[in-house]
C-alpha cells in the first residue's frame, strides 16, 4: 500500500491563501494516489498494461488547473480554456495550449456538444490571450521549442506547471525552463528518492496562482495605456 503523502509547508500559509489554493492541493492528492493505481501488469511480450491512459491523466491535470485558475482569476474578468491560438489573419493555429487565459469574448469558435458536452475546446484569437500554461505530468526534461512557437503569436507569458518531478532535479529543470523562455516552473508535488513519500507543496501551488494573476494584470494595464 502506498505511503500517505506528507505536506511540504516550510512556512504556514495564511488562511485566505490556504482557501485559495485548496483546489490545487486536492488535485495534487488525487493525482498522487493515481500514480500507484491501478498496478501495471507485465504481459508475455515484456510490455506493461492496465494503467490509466496517459492522455486522460494529462487531461485530468489540465482540467483541474483550469478550475483552479478560473476561480483565482475571477476578479480579472478573464476566462481560462483549453484550445489553440489563431494568428491575426486567422489563417494559422498555434500548437495545442493546455490552458489559455483570455478575454471572455476572445474566441472564434468553441467545439462542444449540444447537450451534456464531454469537451470544451476553444480557438482563441491570439490578441485576446493574456497567458498560456503548459501542463506536464512527470517532468524530466524541458520543451525548449514551445515558448518560441508561441512567441510567433505574441505570447510572452508562458508558464510551465508539472504534476511532479524529482526533488533533486527541480533546480536544474527550473533554470532550464527560464532559459528556454518560460516564466518559471512550478510543481504540485515533488518525488524524493525511491520509496519515500510524495511531497505536496502548498507554498509552490500558491506562488503559481499569484504569478499568473500578477502577469495577466500587468498585461491588462499595458494594453490599457
What does this structure look like?
By secondary structure, the protein is an alpha/beta fold. It has one domain. Helix content is 35%, strand content 27%. It has six helices and eleven strands. The strands form two sheets. It has a nine-stranded mixed β-sheet, sandwiched between helices. A two-stranded antiparallel ribbon has the order 2-3. α4 (145-151) links the parallel β8 and β9. α2 runs antiparallel to α3. The longest helix has 23 residues, at 202-224. The chain is globular, with a radius of gyration of 18 Å. It starts with 5 loop residues before the first strand and ends with a helix.
Q: Strand fraction band?
A: 25-35%
Element pattern in H and E: EHHEEHEEEEEHEHEEH
Whole-number total of structural domains? 1
Q: Averaging pLDDT over every residue, what do you get? A: 85
What is the strand tally? 11
Strand order of the largest sheet: 1-11-10-9-8-5-4-7-6
Describe this protein with a few key phrases:
225 residues, alpha/beta, 9-stranded mixed beta sheet, two-stranded antiparallel ribbon, 6 helices, 11 strands, 27% strand, globular
Overview in brief:
This protein has 225 residues and is an alpha/beta fold.
Outline the secondary-structure elements.
Elements: E1 6-8, H1 15-20, H2 22-34, E2 41-42, E3 48-49, H3 54-72, E4 79-86, E5 97-102, E6 107-111, E7 121-125, E8 129-138, H4 145-151, E9 158-166, H5 170-180, E10 185-191, E11 198-201, H6 202-224
Parallel strand pairs: 1-11, 4-7, 8-9, 9-10
Antiparallel strand pairs: 2-3, 4-5, 5-8, 6-7, 10-11
Helix pairs in contact: 2-3
Amino acid at each position: 500500500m502506498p505511503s500517505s503523502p506528507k505536506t511540504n509547508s516550510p512556512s504556514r500559509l495564511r488562511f485566505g491563501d490556504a482557501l485559495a489554493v485548496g483546489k490545487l492541493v486536492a488535485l495534487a492528492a488525487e493525482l498522487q494516489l493515481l500514480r500507484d493505481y491501478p498496478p501495471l501488469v507485465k504481459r508475455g511480450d515484456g510490455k506493461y498494461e492496465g494503467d490509466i491512459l496517459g492522455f486522460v491523466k494529462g487531461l485530468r491535470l489540465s482540467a483541474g488547473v483550469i478550475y483552479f485558475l478560473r476561480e483565482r482569476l475571477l476578479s480579472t474578468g478573464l476566462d481560462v480554456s483549453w484550445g489553440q491560438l489563431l494568428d491575426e489573419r486567422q489563417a494559422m493555429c498555434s500548437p495545442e495550449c493546455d490552458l489559455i487565459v483570455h478575454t471572455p469574448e476572445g474566441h472564434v469558435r468553441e467545439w462542444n456538444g449540444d447537450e451534456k458536452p464531454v469537451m470544451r475546446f476553444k480557438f482563441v484569437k491570439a490578441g485576446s490571450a493574456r497567458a498560456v500554461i503548459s501542463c506536464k505530468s512527470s517532468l524530466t526534461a524541458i520543451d525548449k521549442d514551445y515558448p518560441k512557437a508561441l512567441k510567433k503569436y505574441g505570447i510572452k507569458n508562458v508558464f510551465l506547471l508539472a504534476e511532479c518531478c524529482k526533488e533533486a532535479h527541480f533546480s536544474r529543470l527550473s533554470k532550464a525552463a527560464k532559459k528556454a523562455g518560460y516564466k518559471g516552473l512550478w510543481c504540485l508535488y515533488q518525488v524524493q528518492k525511491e520509496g519515500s513519500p510524495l511531497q505536496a507543496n502548498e507554498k509552490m501551488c500558491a506562488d503559481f496562482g499569484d504569478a499568473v494573476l500578477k502577469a495577466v494584470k500587468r498585461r491588462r494595464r499595458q494594453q490599457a495605456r
